Amino acid sequence: MVSLPIELWFYIAELIPPSDLLKLVGINRVFFTLIMNELYNQLSFITSDPRVFIDKLTELQSPGLAERIRVLTLWPSAVRDAVNAIQPDDADVPGTLERPTTPKPAAYLQKSRERVEKLLGHRRTASRVRTPPKAAFPSPEERSQMFHDAIRNLTRVEEYEINWYFDKGNKESAWKFSFFPEIWQSIGSNLRRLSIDVQVFKLGDIVMSSGSLPKVEELLLTLRSEVRLGHSGDTTIPYFLNKFSRTLQHLSIKTIGHQELSTIFQPELLGRFPLLVKLSIIMPLDAHHLRDPLGFKQLLQNNPTIRDLCIRYSRCCRPCTDDGFKTYDGRHQLYSGVSLPNLHALELGLHIPIPADHTSPMLNYIGRLGSDLTSLTLKDRSLTLEEIRIVLRLFPSYQLKRLSLFPRLLSPQLIDLIAKTCPDLNSLSMDVEMAVGLETAQLASYIDNVEGFALGLLVDAVDVENDRWRYRTWMLADVSVMKWEFKVGHQYNFACMKAIAEAVPSVRSFAGRGHMNVDDPVPKPDGGRFLVDLGNRTKPFDT
């Protein structure tokens, strides 16, 4: 083998297709390390099967293998059940019926042959070799010790995901885990990404021994609540968030089920996050669930470094037509007076309907959060042409570079509206119900007509009066149109994208792929990552 610098081997590895990289595991030490790190970088404890659990713990006794793990996924209830599982008796499996292994005539013949051999004094050798009995499981105490030993070897974990929302625990006595301190002690120093999906009353059991976690940059919280269990709220969440005040760059909080949201944003407890650049809030932000709006407003005011903001209203216990935060003078209790000078990307949920009089203090003040907005994503509502016109009017649309939305109808009028409102737009992404050739207020129902849309758009693209191409100065370079079709499913509609490309000469890419080749619909993977194609197989520890 030719001796080459390590940097050159890394460059060669980037040029090899993912499906072929696994075949080169034995070529040299560089390829071996790259592929083994990719194969064994994920470890999951998500099954209560004791055999799978014990096999993983046995393999993790090798420190060299444990050091390759970078991503840890843990379901505490699965670990508990796997530790306490009792080895089943194969001869007494419930739900099975004992049946003869041979038909009745053959069984009678076998018994007659055995009687004759007994009379003659002959003994037949066994034609079937008995399989050795299965090895007995280690005791629950031994399994628990094996798990603790394996956890102590996980010293290089950078991503940690906990899912603890489906369990037999209850409000009074959630199952207490003796291994949480060991986990935090082993992985806490190098942890960069933490994801917790948990019933809110169990959060304290997880984080009470978490320590400082000095390198966490990304925190994703999903807090669940059930009416029958209830949760009055406490100070766990604000104090837990404050642990990451010096390093946190991405914070996501999502709630499921009825909760008092004021306990999350307690203004007297929640601190500042000077490095925070991305904030995602998905919860029912209305006066019924957020009784004290001061804490949420203070979170936005105290973090002007936010560049990427996601605010999505999620439905909960009752339909909501208004968030209830409008003041007597037309201001909004959550967003009025808030300025995010670094805001460039906004993802906005529109579950709360747009008023018929087109006046919404919430939308008006959200549109004023940042004057340098370049990316706008509208979700959770299929918008009419007039609603799109209203919403785009509230934002600095003239400087948008990227727009993503869910139009009800894809029509030439919609493309013309976006072209006039967003002249500097570079990327347009739409998920539509149907395409039509003409959208008018007189029609109550439409029929899907992609050909009519293509023809109508091409006709409108020609400015007959001035003898010029209407969209010749539009900066649009990439377009994406997704659409549901009967017997086809929800996928990209290349006919609609081609129609837009024929009318807008600047389009050079479909669906963010960098080209307009219809025969290659699969997006290219992100560059710079080592991917190993295992076919139908999963990674050894990620089961």
TrEMBL record:
<dbReference type="InterPro" id="IPR032675">
    <property type="entry name" value="LRR_dom_sf"/>
</dbReference>
<protein>
    <recommendedName>
        <fullName>F-box domain-containing protein</fullName>
    </recommendedName>
</protein>
<feature type="domain" description="F-box">
    <location>
        <begin position="1"/>
        <end position="43"/>
    </location>
</feature>
<dbReference type="InterPro" id="IPR001810">
    <property type="entry name" value="F-box_dom"/>
</dbReference>
